[in-house]
Amino acid sequence: MLVENNVALQPYNTFGIAAKALRLIRVRSQTELQSLIRHPQWRADEVFVLGGGSNIVITGDVRPLVLKVELQGRRLLQASDRGWLVEAEAGESWHALVCWTLAQGWPGLENLALIPGTVGAAPVQNIGAYGVELQDRFDSLDAVDLETGRQFSLNAAQCGFGYRDSVFKHGRSGARGFGLAGRALITRVRFWLPKPWQPVLAYVDLAKKMADTGVHAPDAHQIFDWVCAIRRAKLPDPAVLGNAGSFFKNPTVSPEQCADIIGRDPKVVHYPMPDGTIKLAAGWLIDACGWRGKTVGHAGVYDKQALVLVNRGNAAHPCTGGEVITLAQAIQTSVYERFGIRLEAEPTFI
Ligand SMILES: Cc1cc2nc3c(=O)[nH]c(=O)nc-3n(C[C@H](O)[C@H](O)[C@H](O)COP(=O)(O)OP(=O)(O)OC[C@H]3O[C@@H](n4cnc5c(N)ncnc54)[C@H](O)[C@@H]3O)c2cc1C
């Protein structure tokens, strides 16, 4: 297995932050991964697993060994009257998987179109968009324990999915008392796409598309096209303006807290959740604090959507991870001071 030294990471993170991986290995087969873990100098606690780099903020040269997941392959495992079981290797592009399943006539992933990154990272934060979360189409995954090399499989319950959350985001001593963060490399994911296909159209932007176009019974291809068009209009293309998507999670509050905020800010964007809590739009809170379009150093707040932090530098002088952290902390402070809410960052800092 080839160890590459001093690898420039700028092309491997969508924020476009310039930094080096002191050592990087491309994981292209399970056999190679197993022989790596059996190597006498292997240190599982000094490893960082990298997918497409679309949900990370690099804060300096990366000292842990970077394992760049490039496992490829996808297949139909089962087709029945009840649905399709599809399997993809962790290094596959997520969006390419969505396109492929649709082209094969297996709908179900269309609301999750155009999310950057790899298949293997999708369960890590239970990716979600336009009314669908990964857990809604998830069957199971295979992973390798980076300490022992043992291969294991997890079903949805074992993954502990939540809003932008799973066991892969928590350490062993985390608040939940269990966790696989930094300990497991996801190698393969299986998706269950049920029949009959049911469109998911409750999301406000999709309802607006139906009203605008007069198409009230869209098929999965139509929904895919709408989702891609909405995303292109709303979110910056990382190839043009570096970013990591939504930078903060939408916070949830109690009905009493929400009523208190509405008393002071009647326009606050909020959504009642099935469990009785209220989800607030983090982008609205940041906007209300006046951050939209602001810049700190080379890091800025996107002018069309305050939830997205962007790289306002250029290829030669990109923003640094430190500038992103400074901006993120300043935003957290002002949102806390005005609303009493602590915003939680979504990306992994390394
Ligand atoms: C423009 C833009 C739009 C976005 N829109 C959305 C959205 O709508 N919804 C949403 O949920 N997210 C969104 N994101 C965030 C991001 O695309 C997802 O989180 C994506 O799943 C990250 O995939 P990745 O391969 O780039 O992961 P990386 O950024 O490489 O890694 C993210 C985390 O996962 C871990 N990881 C990666 N691969 C593996 C693996 N095989 N095994 C174990 N751990 C692994 C890493 O160690 C890291 O902690 C967006 C990002 C951008 C830039």
Q: What are the SSEs and their pairings?
A:
Elements: E1 4-8, E2 20-27, H1 30-37, E3 47-50, E4 56-57, E5 65-69, E6 74-80, E7 83-89, H2 94-104, E8 128-129, E9 132-133, E10 138-145, E11 151-155, H3 156-159, E12 184-194, H4 204-213, H5 220-234, E13 243-246, E14 252-253, H6 255-264, E15 270-272, E16 278-280, H7 282-288, E17 295-296, E18 299-301, E19 308-311, H8 321-339, E20 348-349
Parallel strand pairs: 2-5, 3-5, 4-20
Antiparallel strand pairs: 1-2, 6-7, 7-12, 8-9, 10-11, 10-12, 13-19, 14-16, 15-16, 17-18, 18-19
Bound molecules: flavin-adenine dinucleotide.
Summarize the structure.
It contains eight helices and 20 strands. With 350 residues, the chain is of the alpha+beta class. It has three domains: 4-69, Uridine Diphospho-n-acetylenolpyruvylglucosamine Reductase, domain 2 (2-Layer Sandwich), CATH 3.30.43; 74-194, 2-Layer Sandwich (Uridine Diphospho-n-acetylenolpyruvylglucosamine Reductase, domain 3), CATH 3.30.465; 243-349, Alpha-Beta Complex (Uridine Diphospho-n-acetylenolpyruvylglucosamine Reductase, domain 1), CATH 3.90.78.10.
